[in-house]
What we know:
Blueprint: H1 2-17, H2 26-33, H3 37-48, H4 52-69, H5 74-80, H6 86-91, H7 93-97, H8 101-105, E1 112-120, E2 123-129, E3 134-140, H9 143-153, E4 158-161, H10 167-177, H11 194-204, E5 212-213, H12 214-220, H13 227-235, E6 248-249, H14 262-272, H15 283-289
Parallel strand pairs: 1-4, 5-6
Antiparallel strand pairs: 1-2, 2-3
Amino acid sequence: MGETVAAACRFIEGRVADGSDGAVPLAEVAAAVGASPDGLRRAFVRILGVTPRQYADTRRRERLRGALRTGTDVTGALFDAGYGSTSRLYESAHEHLGMTPASYKAGGAGATIDWTVTDCDLGRLLVAATERGLCFIQLGDDDAELEARLVAEFPRAVLARDDAALGTLVDAVLQRVAGDATAADIPLDITGTAFQRRVWEALRHIPYGEVRTYGEIAIEIGTPHAVRAVGTACGANPVALVIPCHRVVPKSGGVGNYGFGPARKKVLLAREGASVPGLVKDLDVARDHDTAPTLDLQ
């Protein structure tokens, strides 16, 4: 069924690229790929974690964001993306973009992001959130470097340090650092391409204590040849730890690459009880035994 879902994705993408207004009818998509509507919908949810309509909406939003970023005026961008009226777009703008289209076009100007930095046994932890949810996590050794990464990610947002306001959110993230399987769900406010969202949804479904290879994730989302693209999507994950990209490893063995460093990845996997050789629960020990990460993403 994976190939059928992949074909349906291509059909939906073609309709969105044509600037078709409104939702792409499920019956039309199913007929195009030779599947029943109900069966196709179930397959989408099982493989991608979203319905065909949600997938089409994501691609339409992606097209809108791309047009706004390249300088297209808001009206032109919304019609090109298949929004039949400005009222339809603005009514759903907060849900789709986290801000109005004009604000998104200006690089997020006017958006407010609260952030804080705290200590944990893996180093210094930066947590940032909008009023809608967690939007950025970083682990490192230097506060100034972590803050610089935050500014680079959100150059035009209003960044306000607020240690007290983010206490509950920080505690939930620290539970994940500690390997707590009972950590509560955390609301997210993140954006990504349709492909990135498919990868991130797949990562969220990797069970605690288990790992998957990059190739297995590529197959799961219906794009078996996109192994390196899966690795790139893992690297673009803005809320690692909550979307657990540390649970993806190379086929050839070891832990491979990780944005926060392979030593931290080893510790996180060890605390979750993952079956990967060479894992240790102590960061200093992991650093002492680190070797150059493999580039085999299969």
